[in-house]
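During the no-cost extension, the postdoctoral fellow (Dr. R.K.) reprocessed legacy sequence entries with the updated structure-token encoder. One reprocessed record is reproduced below for audit purposes.
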Amino acid sequence: MAFVVAENCIRCKYTDCVEVCPVDCFREGENFLVIDPDECIDCALCVPECPAGAIYAEDDVPEGQKMYIALNAELARLWKPIVEKKDAPADADEWLNVKDKLQYLKR
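Re-encoded structure tokens follow.
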């Protein structure tokens, strides 16, 4: 079972989680991060580091966000690894609790 980045990361894209990952399983898009399920070792170190509360164990992804399991796997094959923390977008805090953000995801 891998961990999954879900909706609340879109347009927030805090990268605190990246620093603690021992296997560099995060991949970076323009306004979202994903976890490569083939690389994730299920250590859960990233979960408490996410200021957006956007990372879940695969079995715990909230109803209505289950599509993020497949989306993480799909985008992990396309996006490059991110291994160092970067500054969050300037408006990240404004997007933190916005709902229904999938429409804003830039692939």
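Residues 67-78 form the longest helix (12 residues). The first strand starts at residue 3 and ends at 5. The remaining legacy entries will be reprocessed before the final report is submitted.
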